[in-house]
Structure formats: structure tokens, C-alpha cells
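Hi team,

Filling in the usual template for the complex we talked about on Friday. All components are listed, including any nucleic acid strands or ligand strings, so the model treats them as one assembly.

SUBMITTER: L.P.
PURPOSE: interface mapping
COMPONENTS: two
RESIDUES: 711
SEQUENCES:
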Amino acid sequence: MSGLHIENISMRFDLPNGSSVQALKDVSLELKQGELMSVLGPSGCGKTTLLNILAGFLAPTEGQTRMNGHVVTGPDAERGMVFQQGALFEWMSVRENVSFGPRMAGQKPSQYMDNVDHLLDVVGLQEFKEKAIYELSGGMQQRVALARCLANDPDVILMDEPLGALDALTREKMQGLVLKLWKETGKTIILITHSVEEALLLGERLIVMAPRPGRIHKEYRLPFADLGVGADLREVKKHPEFGERREEILSMIWDMEEEIMGRQEAS
Amino acid sequence: MELFSDLAGELGNILATLAAAVPFILGYVLLILLLLVVWKAVKRGLTPRRDFGSLKTVTFGDESAVNSNFAASVISVVLIFVLWGAFTGSKLLPGFMHAPGAYTGESSFTYTAMAEDGSTDDATVSVIIHAVGEDVDAPEMPLGDGFAKDDTMVVAAYRSELMRWDDNDEITRDDGAMITAVNGTPIEAGSPVAVDFGEVSLTGRGTLNVTPATGWQMEPIWLPPPEDVWSRLMEISTEGFRNSTLGEHLGYSLFRVIVGFVIGAMVGIPLGYAMGLSDWFRGWFDPIVEFMRPVPPLALIPLVIIWAGIGEEGKIILLFLAALWIMAIGARSGVSGVRISKVHAAYSLGASKWQIMRHVIIPNSLPEIFTAARVAMGVCWGTVVAAELVAAEKGAGMMIMTASKFQNTDIVIMGIILIGVIGFGIDMLMRQAEKWLVPWKGKG
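RESULT (copied from the run log):
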């Protein structure tokens, strides 16, 4: 049984003041190998909690995640993670960062060097491989993070707003890179984002989550990721359905935000 | 309440001293501003450098536009030496730059003595004022006529001397003679008369007190001129001081600091790691560390002397304690400061706990540990000098303390300068090592 099975996950934790927070309620999903799924939702809807549970950093209070048949109990190299920023090791060079996973697994340089060099080529950082992390721009750093994750050859890549801190132009280029890597490597990718456009572009499947308690509100199947591979993403955005979907999802999230604000004002 | 009135009195004294210093401070500030104006004028004459900073129009309030002006630094340091030389009569400075010195040479004054019967007579006192450290004998002089005979006296600069004027007179104080005037000016006890070389006053017992003018220069026993300090440095570095060479004194101090610091770091860093990684250890050691940290190491000196004596052991225990808490807290905050996303990323990449310790937590904590090490070395250096001031056989602090007991001010000043230079050198070395070993500091 391959793929990622999320089975009735709930997350509820106690606060110091005695009350408790229901961060997630009864979330179920199934991802097949090689699927690209983006997750969208207003702040506080439990997106990051869900991702942390999938990565194994948090244990759900109910339900379980199964990966290729076994239950997830902690972080593992089979589930790679790309963070928003600041998760690179600045005391290592670019190449040392990318080869971190294989090195920790005890591989010899001769075993991983070719693959690391290849990945540095793919993300366009071959010339920068001996540089220190802090000498790179934000976009380059995120490319290192992607390459580092891929060098470890995980089955699933979890991305927690990996492009959130980048400027619009770099972001667009990086979106193209993510699509390219997805197609070339055939990895299962779950991407959390705040940007509706990004979620539409980078999701075969798009999940919209609702807050309080965090739950899946609506799921879409979209053609844009396939259209976008190797194409100009700006052209994809001109697709009539793209605009429609964007407006639909935007107003959905807008309503949720309104509701949250209203509830806060009422209370 | 008595305490408060006492403290208020002390505060009054301090404020009075401060108020007396205000003109000098103002003078110094004016000198700084004057030289600033001069420098601006000089700079306008030079070819301007059009670098990025000089093109900024907003410099007031822009911290990045304020760089240390090298010219100001040079002038300020040179000025310290010039002032030092000027007020100590240094031979390195041309004579016209000296502040007015103490009077030396030969001079004289006359006094008018009055006998009981009202008759008066004038006599001349020849005064020879010589520099400190010289030995001068009073020459034989003719006594002159009248019942008051001429006198001769020898006074060292910065000193005063009692003149028993009637020792050689025909009518003495016992006979009822007394002085009524000096240089023709009437004199009485409590109101001195100014003379060519200083002043002369009448004591309550009728003798004369002769005080040559001291000028503006400092007596060598207070502040020796720079060349004396330099020659003392040369002398001590070749001949040594108190059975030890200068190298031994400084070497012992440095040895204590380094050994104490290294042991402190060897215990403190693992302790800090344990506190940063385990809630049990944090809970266990928090009260101890948080209590010991604010205790100044100097306050431990008496206890350490009681426990371990004044030998090397005691010094090293003290420096160990001085470094220990600083290093432990530095290591603890280095560990706590690791971004959770780095640790999560390492776990997701398949690293084990030990690999995360070795490749993530330790390198991530190094910048903090280096900062702590710099602070600890500074504190240790200060503490070792203080501990040596209290009791030691050898060491920089012992050297200046012993010298001060014998009023060898030149050695004291030399020692202070050396201690400062070494402290500065330690800090520079640590900074350099930091740049070298943790280039990623502050760039995470």
C-alpha cells in the first residue's frame, strides 16, 4: 500500500488557562505517489499543524497517518521538509548543506557526490556550491533548501510556505522550478501557502481548510499544474478557469476571515 | 537616619569636587571642539574623497554615517601624552610646552624683627630651592649686622620648611623678639606674605614657614613623566622586580587567566548544554547559576583565600568560578537559541540525536559561546589583577600593589598600562578568533 493516508486526524491541546484548542478536527486525506497537493486557508486553520503532524513533529490526539503502509510516529528521511526560511545550516557551505542527508546516512562522498552535483545543476547553483549560505540571496537559499531535500530522496516532500518570503519575481521563477522538479522526480508534494494564485498553480489537488476547528472545507482538482510544467506561468494565469477559481476561493476565504472577525468582536 | 545624613555629607563632598573639576572638563571639551574646527578646515583644503558616506546629506541621526574619525583618535591619544608630559615637565617635550613648574634656584626675602623694647632690625634669608632628590648643603654666609642676623636655608621643591630665624640672632623669641614684617609687608599668623619664590607664613609659635611655589606640574611621586615610566619599563624588563622578571609577573597572571578560563569553559560549556537540552538539568542548576552569576568574583576572594590560600590553586579556583557561570549561561542560550526549523529539518533529513548535536546544536551555539568567552576572558583578567592586588607572590597586580607601597609611582603606572594593553590584546585576539572560527555569526 503506497502513498500517504491521513486517517481521521484530530488535534486538541490544553491551554495553561484551562481551556483547550481544537486545532484540527477529523481530517482525512489520501495521497497517491506523485501527487501534487496545495493547502490553502485563513490563518489559524491548522495548515501548519497538519503539516507538522505529517512530518512527525507532532502526534495527533486522534487518528493516524500511514506512510507506505506503516504508521508515522516521528520524523523520518522518507518525508522531507522545506521550510519558509532559516532552516539551512549557515556553518556549512552550499554543497555541505545539500549533501547533509546522505552524509548523515553514512554514505561516502563517492556515493552521493554525483547526485549532489546534479541537483546543484538542476537548481542552478553549480557555481555557488562552495559559497557560505549567508552569501546567497533569499531565492538562492530556498533553492538550496529544495536541493537539500531532494538529495535525501524522500517519498513525500512537505513544504511550509517555502516561497512566502521571496519577492514576486523570484517567487514566480521558483514556482516554475517546483513544478519542474515535481514532474522530473515524481515526488508526492504537499505545499502550504497563503497565496491563492500559488495554490492554484502548484496543486493538482487544492485543499481549502476552514478554521475553528481546523477542517477540510473544500477540495478541487485542477489542471493548472500540468499546464504549467515547462510553460510560462503567466500564460497559465490567463486561462479563463484560473480567474474564476481564484475569485471563488478568494471570496470563500474572505468569508471565513469575516466570520472569525465577527466572532471575535461579538465575544 | 545617621546613615542618610552621613551619605548626604559624602555626596556634598563629591559634588564639590565635581564642581571644582567643571572648568577643566569644559576646557577639555572646548579643546576638542576647537580641534574639530581646525580639522574641518584642514580637510576642506585636502582633495575631497567622494565615497558613498561623504555623499550622504543626512548624517545627524544616521548611525551608519558615524564612523570613528581616525584623526580624532590619533589627536586624542597624542594629546594625552602631551598633557602628561606638559604637567610632569617631561624632557621629551620642548620647554615652552611645559606647564609652569615648581620654583627652583636661589632667592631671598627679608624679615623685620622687633625686640621687646620696640627696636627693630632687618635680616635677609637666602633660600636655595632644589629639585626633589638632590642633596644641597646650605653655604656659609656672612651674618650681617644688627641684632637680627642673616640666615640661609635649603628647601626641596614641593616641600615647605620651618625657618627658626632667631637661632643665630642676638635677641631671640625667648627674649621677646618677634617678626612684624616680611619684605616690608606686615605679617601675622594665618595671613601669609607672597615672595618671589612662593610664600612665607608665620606660625603660631612665631617661626616662619617657607613654602616655594609648586607651579602647575605634578610631583614625580604623584605622576612621573612618560620617559621615567619608559625607562622603568626597560629596567624592570631586564632586571626584574622583586626577584621576578617582568615576563614572569605578566606570564603568571596570563597563566592563571588561561588555566582558570579553560577549566571554567570545560565545565561551564557542558553544563550549559545540559541546561539547554534537559528540563531536569535546567531546573536543577537554574537556582545555582542564577544565584552565583550576580555574585562578583571579587567578593569570593576572601573565601577563596581562606579555603585555598594565596597560591596558584586559590587564584585558579577564583578564575574558574569567574568563567564558569558566564560560559554556562552562554552555552545555555546558544543551545536555546537554535531555530526549531533547523532541528526539524535535520530530523527530516534522517539525522540521529547525536548527529543533530554534533552538526546542528554545537555549531549553532558557537557564536554565543564565543561572545561568552570574550566576556569571560575580560572578567578573568580583571579578577586576576584584583586577586593579585590582595595577595600574591608574583603577578601584574602584585607588582603594582607592592610598588605603590614603596611609592614607586612609575612602576604603578607602567603596570596599569601593561595590564590595559594585555586586556586589550586578549579582546582583539578573541575577536580575531571569532571572525576566523565562526564566520556565520549574526548571519543566521
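MY TAKE: The radius of gyration of chain B is 33 Å. The beta strands of chain B are 105-114, 120-130, 151-156, 161-163, 178-182, 185-186, 193-195, 198-202, 208-212.

Thanks, L.
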